[in-house]
Specification:
The protein is an alpha+beta fold. It folds into 3 domains: 110 residues, no CATH class; 160 residues, no CATH class; 36 residues. 27% of the residues lie in helices and 23% in strands. The chain contains 7 helices and 19 strands. A hairpin with a 2-residue loop joins strand 2 and strand 3. Helix 4 packs across helix 5.
């Protein structure tokens, strides 16, 4: 397979996977394919199944020397809203630099978050931006606040927002503080807490972000309460496995005086407090000052141990065999040893 970097995608032999390149602050490029590419990709290559596509992707991944992060709903829809990362030591890195920045004089779009994955049942998550995933600079004070006090304050916040924006009609869910390094919070799609006679939804506030300013924590709580409101009223505010926040969610957020920022992968998921929202919190005398947050170190990337694919070519007739294994092959037509090409 021959790989060529284009300004509008990655060309594999004669098939162009269209999309856009982004550049992160650490210099890493990543490539995201356009919506619908998964189906086009398989049709153009005349592959019989997604399993064959998967093998093709693995071969391409090996050639690129890069990792294909499949973070969308189905495990076989390769390239659909997925990322291919190119770090500075990647053999194609300089080619990307040349094509994108020198030949075209383009300014790359500002790097956005790669699509995030859910853990157990976070369901409808609001994800933090990369710069907000840093380790907390504050160390624990001598007199620490008990986590039970924080949860009690979050329950008071729920009651306040319920009164201000939902006419006190929402039933209080179980409010938790759990580790969710890639999301500010979540609201479960089902009632996951049970008693003998009743059941409850869960709203979680990410432990890594407890020490954010009061108004931002309140905006996250309100974001998750909108999901709760929609579930209780059978409204479809999300799609694509609850990852994508649609225009209905945006409308409901704006009714509650939140700004709803948009990105192509996740929709209107990035909510922020408006001045009107913050003013109402001040008027109610609400403040949540938490001096600590959980720190979850980011895992170091482990270099791939997968062998790169090699071509074995007959020097007489040109017949080619491709494999990741070390082989000694003889051409069946010419009866000569096939030469390995890295």
């Amino acid at each position: 397979m021959k790989i060529k970097i284009m300004y509008n995608g990655i060309k594999c032999d004669k098939t162009l996977i269209t999309g856009r390149f982004y550049k992160k602050t650490d210099g890493t490029y990543y490539f995201i394919a356009k919506p619908g590419v998964a189906i086009q990709f398989i049709n153009k290559l005349e592959l019989d199944s997604y399993q064959e596509a998967k093998k093709f992707v693995e071969e391409m991944e090996s050639l690129l020397g890069a990792e294909v992060m499949n973070d969308s709903d189905a495990m076989t829809d390769y390239f659909e809203d997925d990322c291919i990362y190119f770090e500075p030591n990647n053999p194609f890195y300089n080619e990307i630099e040349t094509v994108i920045t020198k030949k075209l004089g383009m300014q790359l779009p500002e790097a956005r978050n790669a699509p995030t994955t859910s853990t157990v049942a976070p369901d409808a998550q609001e994800g933090p931006k990369a710069e907000e995933r840093k380790a907390p600079e504050q160390s624990l004070p001598a007199e620490t606040v008990a986590l039970s006090d924080v949860i009690r304050k979050l329950e008071e916040l729920f009651d306040l927002l319920n009164k201000l924006y939902f006419e006190s009609k929402l039933a209080r869910p179980v409010i938790t503080v759990q580790s969710t390094p890639k999301s500010f919070g979540h609201c479960t799609t089902k009632k996951v807490w049970k008693t003998e006679g009743d059941s409850y939804y869960e709203i979680n506030i990410g432990a890594e972000f407890l020490n954010r300013p009061s108004e931002k924590t309140a905006a996250t709580m309100c974001h998750e309460m909108i999901h709760l409101y929609c579930r209780e009223n059978e409204l479809k505010e999300t799609c694509q496995g609850v990852r994508y926040h649609n225009k209905l969610f945006k409308e409901e957020a704006e009714k509650r005086e939140l700004e709803a920022g948009y990105d192509r992968a996740n929709g209107y998921t990035h909510t922020a407090p408006t001045e009107a929202f913050t003013s109402k919190l001040r008027e109610a005398g609400y403040a949540l000052e938490v001096p600590f947050a959980r720190y979850t170190p980011e895992k170091e990337k482990v270099a791939s141990t997968r062998n790169k694919a090699k071509d074995y070519i007959c020097p007489d007739c040109g017949q080619k065999v491709r494999s990741t294994a070390e082989l000694n092959l003889i051409c069946g037509n010419c009866e000569v040893v096939m030469i390995k090409h890295e």
